[in-house]
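Whiteboard transcription, Tuesday session. T.W. wrote the C-alpha cells on the left side:
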C-alpha cells in the first residue's frame, strides 16, 4: 500500500512538472527587439565582460624566476610556480644548495585566495543572472512587462551586483598587488637559503590578472549604468510628458 501511494505521489509530481514545462514552453516567444534597446544591449555587454572578468582570473597560472650561482658550478634556474586561487603558502619550490646537499622545500608566502575567489564568484553568478535575464527579455518579454514586479526585482538585483562588483574588484585589485609583491624575484632572492648566491630573473607575466581587474571595474560601470534604464521600466519612474487628458485639451471647437 505504501509503495502504491508513493508511486501515485511521484506520478502526480511528474504530471505537475510536465504541465509547468508545457506552459512555460508555450509562453516562449522569441523577440530580438529588446537587443536594439539599451536594456537588452547593455545586458549583452554585461554578459560578455563578466565572462572575461572571471575567466582571466580563474584560469591563471604563472611562475617567477631567479638563478642560483655557485662557485665552480653551472648556474641553476629556480622557477616557483603559482596559480589560482593564489594560496601561495601551498606552492613549494626548491633552492639547490651550493654544498651539494639535498634541497629542502621552500614555500611562497601569503594566501590571497579569499579576494580572488570572491571576485570569481561574483563573476560566475553575474554570468548566470545575465543569461537568465536575457532569456526573459528575449523570450518572455510579455511576462517581464506584465506587472511592475519583474522590473523592480531586476533593478534591485542589478544594483546589488553593481555594489558587489565595486567591492570584489577593489578587494581583488589589492590582492593582486600583494601577489605581485610575494612573487617578485627581487623579494624571493632575499631568502635565507639564497644568501648572496641568487640573482633575480624575469618578473612573472601578470597581463591577464591586470586585465581581470580592468574588466571588474568595467562591469561596475556597466551594471551601475544599467540601473537607470531598468529604473525607467519600473513604476517609480514618472514620464516627464504624460498624455494630455480631455480636460487639459479643452472642449472641441465648433
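and on the right, the sequence the group agreed on:
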Amino acid at each position: 500500500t505504501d509503495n502504491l501511494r508513493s508511486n501515485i505521489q511521484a506520478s502526480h509530481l511528474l504530471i505537475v512538472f510536465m504541465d509547468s514545462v508545457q506552459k512555460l514552453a508555450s509562453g516562449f516567444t522569441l523577440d530580438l527587439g529588446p537587443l536594439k534597446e539599451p536594456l537588452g544591449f547593455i545586458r549583452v555587454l554585461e554578459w560578455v565582460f563578466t565572462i572575461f572578468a572571471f575567466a582571466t582570473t580563474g584560469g591563471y597560472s604563472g611562475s617567477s624566476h631567479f638563478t642560483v650561482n655557485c662557485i665552480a658550478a653551472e648556474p641553476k634556474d629556480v622557477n616557483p610556480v603559482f596559480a589560482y586561487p593564489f594560496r601561495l603558502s601551498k606552492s613549494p619550490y626548491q633552492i639547490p644548495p651550493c654544498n651539494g646537499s639535498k634541497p629542502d622545500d621552500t614555500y611562497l608566502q601569503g594566501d590571497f585566495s579569499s579576494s580572488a575567489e570572491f571576485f570569481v564568484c561574483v563573476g560566475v553568478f553575474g554570468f548566470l543572472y545575465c543569461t537568465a535575464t536575457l532569456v526573459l527579455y528575449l523570450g518572455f518579454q510579455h511576462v517581464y512587462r506584465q506587472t511592475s514586479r519583474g522590473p523592480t526585482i531586476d533593478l534591485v538585483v542589478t544594483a546589488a551586483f553593481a555594489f558587489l562588483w565595486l567591492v570584489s574588484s577593489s578587494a581583488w585589485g589589492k590582492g593582486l598587488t600583494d601577489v605581485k609583491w610575494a612573487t617578485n624575484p627581487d623579494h624571493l632572492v632575499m631568502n635565507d637559503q639564497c644568501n648572496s648566491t641568487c640573482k633575480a630573473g624575469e618578473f612573472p607575466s601578470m597581463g591577464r590578472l591586470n586585465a581581470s581587474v580592468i574588466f571588474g571595474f568595467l562591469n561596475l560601470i556597466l551594471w551601475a549604468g544599467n540601473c537607470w534604464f531598468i529604473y525607467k521600466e519600473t513604476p517609480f519612474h514618472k514620464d516627464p510628458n504624460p498624455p494630455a487628458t480631455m480636460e487639459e485639451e479643452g472642449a472641441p471647437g465648433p
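Someone added at the bottom: The helical segments are 2-26, 38-58, 113-139, 141-144, 149-182, 185-188, 207-231, 246-249.
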